[in-house]
Amino acid sequence: MRQSKLLSLLLAVLTALAVLTGAVAVPILCRPFYYAQIGPLGLESYTGLTGDQIRQAYDEVLDYCTGLSEAFSAGVLPFSDSGASHFADVRGLFLLDLGVLAFCLIALGAVILLCQRRVRPQPLLGRGPGFWGACGLGAAFLVIGGLAALDFDRAFTIFHALFFPGKTNWIFDWRTDPVILILPQDFFRNCALLVLALLLLWCAVLIAADLLAAGARRRAGACVGESRVKSEE
Hints:
By secondary structure, this protein is an all-alpha fold. It is built from 8 helices and 2 strands, in the order E-H-H-H-H-H-E-H-H-H. It has helices at residues 5-29, 32-38, 43-47, 51-65, 81-117, 129-150, 152-163, 185-232, and strands at residues 2-4, 119-121. Strands 1-2 form a two-stranded parallel ribbon. The radius of gyration is 23 Å and the shape is elongated. The protein starts with a strand and ends with a helix.
């Protein structure tokens, strides 16, 4: 069975994208992560809403942003056209993340099936594609996370400037868009911490799996060598 460096690079990129989009998808899809913060963040006293009203508002916002509903709504909270347009932008990013995640998982499955039949990835410097994808992604986000930790407010602003270029509708006035009251910056900081923790965890698992696999191959090779020596004797 022939080996391919191009296949290794493709697998490294797909693995890195799957880990990144998967980590981002967790706080998007795991709504209990938000529910658990309603009390610690003091949202009921801060907003004057009940816990049920806050959860309903959040659920309706997430239903829209994840494509489960076509019209934007936020429970009992009113909203402006500008506020709704920002969540339309967010919807596009969320659906893009989920779409890329689905594509990467399907593509990885297809490539793995191909590897079993015709071609296998060629190790790069003795390491597999998962190792290099995890190393590149993990190193990049360690730097990004470190910079964000130094000044999260600035990082928050830069994030919005990058992903919503030329727009200011992400700057909410709570009097016209009180939905921002149930989505404080502390919540987004906690989301960022969760994404970073999951991403680094999955990268560590991939790196450890590659190191263990390499060790197993070396031991298997040593056993084969010993068997040949004994048979020659």
